Amino acid sequence: MRIAIGIEYSGVPFAGWQRQGHAYTIQQVIEEALSKVADHPVSAVAAGRTDAGVHAMQQVAHFDTSAERQTRSWLLGVNSNLPSDVALRWVLPVSDEFHARFRAMRRRYRYVIHCRLTHSPLYLNRVTWVHHELDVARMALAATYFVGTHDFSSYRAQECQAKSPVKTVHELRVERRGEFIVLDIEADGFLHHMVRNIAGVLIAIGMGKEPPEWAKAVLEARNRALGGVTARPEGLYFVQPTYPDEFNIPRLTLPTGVW
Questions:
Q1: pLDDT digits (tens, 9 = 90+) for 48-61
Q2: What is the residue-wise DSSP string for 110-175?
Q3: What domains can you pick out in the chain, each with its CATH number?
Q4: Are 137 and 241 spatial neighbours (Cβ–Cβ below 8 Å)?
Q5: Chain centroid to CA 80: how far?
Q6: By CB neighbour count within 10 A (0-12 exposed, 13-18 middle, 19+ buried), where does 115 fall?
Q7: Is 64 part of the annotated catalytic residue set?
Q8: For residue 25, what pLDDT is reported?
Q9: Which member of 39, 51, 135, 188 is catalytic?
């Protein structure tokens, strides 16, 4: 039986999603909790690998099991074996045709910037603090250059292992919400550090260090060395992936609060 799960987590204490022999990861604690409930070793495949410090509103993963459990038993049993930084939102039996990574059509991220002269202890490790005022109109104009199909070589990490740097960005919105600036980006896929590198360029433009057209110039250069600073991971949230309707994967309704 193949089962899909929706996972919410804070990335603060973890070295990212992917299991590592020397570090504490989300995949590790998820697989350990699933294995306890299944009473056999379980491997989980996620829609995307988040880096150290990056959070998820609704990561989606799947696993295969021979154990017969009620959906409620999976949900409550696994959550009771997870640390407080991680929780399953839902559990859904799916067909063998479902694959959390390869059947995802789009992925959405959110990057949250806190603009204030002093940092806020209440949002520590939950947002990226910038003590300069940012010009949202300049950032929004620059964001338009990313929409469409482009070679994002200038916005990928040097260690990125993706076969192709060409991705299609379907949406990139920049909005001010009180003291916060929220970047929402959806694409058919993302390169390593792509969102954080885009955020770094937009922050520099918002600070007035570069004109909005610089985002386009960096994109067209296809050279990471000409790009900006990689923005910090604390403000990055993996919102959710999108799948074909046939799988009935639950869709997350984004929060209507500050961010």
A1: 999 999 999 999 99
A2: EEEEEE-SS--GGGTTTSEEE-S---HHHHHHHHGGGSEEEE-GGGS-TT---S--EEEEEEEEEE
A3: 2-103 (3.30.70.580), 106-239 (3.30.70.660)
A4: no
A5: 25
A6: buried
A7: no
A8: 97
A9: 51
